[in-house]
Structures
1.
Amino acid sequence: ELARGQSASNGRLTIQLDACRYPADNPAGEAQAHITVTDATRAEPVFTGWMLSSSPALSAMDHPRYDVWVLRCVVPGYTPPEAEPGDGDTIEE
């Protein structure tokens, strides 16, 4: 999970959450996250843009080794059946 503005590293990648949006009537199913993904071996980001949880292939990161998907925004006070409570504007990676 990442809060807005946070980043996490996994292997050579660093994933930063810039924003996470969701419709009020379906916060678990239609997350839209703007992320920036950098690879330690490259000067430019390998991905910058919006990813949709319901359609990950629509705006996919093109990387020969890694795949990054947005699962959902964690919404205060809302617990989807398969998840534990989170706090704030976060995504799970």
Note: The radius of gyration is 13 Å.
2.
Amino acid sequence: MSHRGDLTERLITILILLAERPHSQQELAKRFEVDAVTIRRNLTELTRHFMIVDEKVGRERVYRFSDHYEFHPPNLTPGELATLLLAQQTIGATGLTAFGTPFGRYGYSLLDKVRAALPKALRDKLDVLANIFGSAAIPAKDYSAHAETIDRLTNAAMSQHRIRMRYRTLHSGAVKDRLFDPYAVYFDPDGATLKVIGYDHKRQTIIPFSVDHVERLSETTDSFSRPPDFNLSEFLTKNCFNGIHGDPLTVLLRARGTTARVFAERTFHPSQRELDRTTDATGNIEIITIQMTVAQGRGLERFILSWLPDAEVLEPAELREKIAGILNQSLGSASPQ
């Protein structure tokens, strides 16, 4: 692992150790096989963001979370532990704990501790259940080669330092240098990709970038301030749909037959609402019209195309024309020469 990767792992691990109990400066230096000056520098950086205090105990300087922070392991029931175990196995199926980050080891140690806390009869039942209960999510990409990039982006986001990165776009394949303020690194389930989101100085807006398309990056000495009202979940709900970033657009979609019944059962976006429906003599839904306000672009277009021929764009007219153009283009490219 790189020096930067070592630093990120050390900072995260120090926080976990201090949450468990106070540690002396000497203990931490020995634990990470670094000198006291390095540990002191790490702790100074962490105290800027976390409620960590130090006190002299004998000849040692001891660090701990302040009295305002207390960590008490939850008293979980066997049923709750079983649920946690199954949830962790599902998360592992997405590859989230296999990126080469410090969290990978904790994912596996969590599984071991949870299993050890369960009665044998329940452990045996879970072994059987694990072959039945699972996740359809399959890692689409192997991010082990990008562990250093992930660590450096995470560190820059934590310290709020602006970065310069060389980025290769998926759309055109062009490679461009960008000045970027990283806000967060997150897993996008649409396409099972890892992304970094923040303020792009070239486009002067907040947008996400795929981590595996970052070809080179360097941290600058310039600091940035993340907007105090920025919320990752709220931003993605409003500005990203089906894995693609874009400006919000209100659309009306009509579906027929089985697709109409699927539309009635599923919520594709929090803004989704049903406008009307028609049913047959037996009560089965025949036609349904829904409205959503989602990010426009390739993500929305792919969503609509995936439900053809049983889905139709009613509004806006520009999107209807866009889908028609895509279909005509596809027919043209498929025509024999």
Note: The two ends are 53 Å apart (CA to CA).
3.
Amino acid sequence: MNDKILKNISMEDVLELKELVSYQDGQIVSRTLVQNGAVSITLFEFDTGEEISAHESKGNALLTILDGSGVITIDEKEYALAAGHSIVMPAGIPHAVKAASPFKMLLMVVFPAR
């Protein structure tokens, strides 16, 4: 089934994930690698000050900073993360993401079995 296959990414190539999204002034850029009922994997780029406001997800989300730094808010508690740091945002808990500097992240969301 096509919806379970990686997309927007080269196969069998050595990749530097942070190079697959480019910084753009005043924007958030995303590149979806997988999107189906079980998992979502997306690369994001945020310009300084850009943010995704508080929301909840039906799946547990693992966020890894690839470049730069951001502030992740989970249930009103703020976490300052920089390149190489990861955090899990639990399902059903409000969370938000804001760029402290231009930054890139990999977001992997795993949804519960139906």
Note: The two ends are 17 Å apart (CA to CA).
